[in-house]
Amino acid sequence: MKFYGKTLLLTALLALSACSSSPEQGAGAQMADADDTCGASQYQNFVGKPMTSLEGVRIDGKVRAIPYNSAVTMDFNLRRLNFLGDSDDKIIRVYCG
């Protein structure tokens, strides 16, 4: 009787796991697009370069270069492109916010 109960439970669990839905591929792509409202993905090639490499580069929209240990406002703007620098004056992160 114990074997029958365990088998029944295992079968029920397997049946329930087969009914679970997986996220659609399109949903992940939409999330990535929503996170990149400022176009940061287009400027990832600046990571590792000196902050001075931004001089003379024309970027449409709001841009903020943040040198190491600088004070910045805490306002969050998804349409603003941010370049974050490290102590060696190299760009370590490009992101929206």
UniProtKB/TrEMBL annotation:
Keywords for the protein's UniProt record, in alphabetical order: Signal
- Please name the Pfam families in this protein's record: Inhibitor_I78 (PF11720)
**From which residue to which does the signal peptide run?**
1-26
Supply the Gene3D superfamilies for this chain.
Trypsin Inhibitor V, subunit A
List the InterPro entries hit by this protein, alphabetically: Prot_inh_I78
Name of the molecule in the record: Peptidase inhibitor I78 family protein
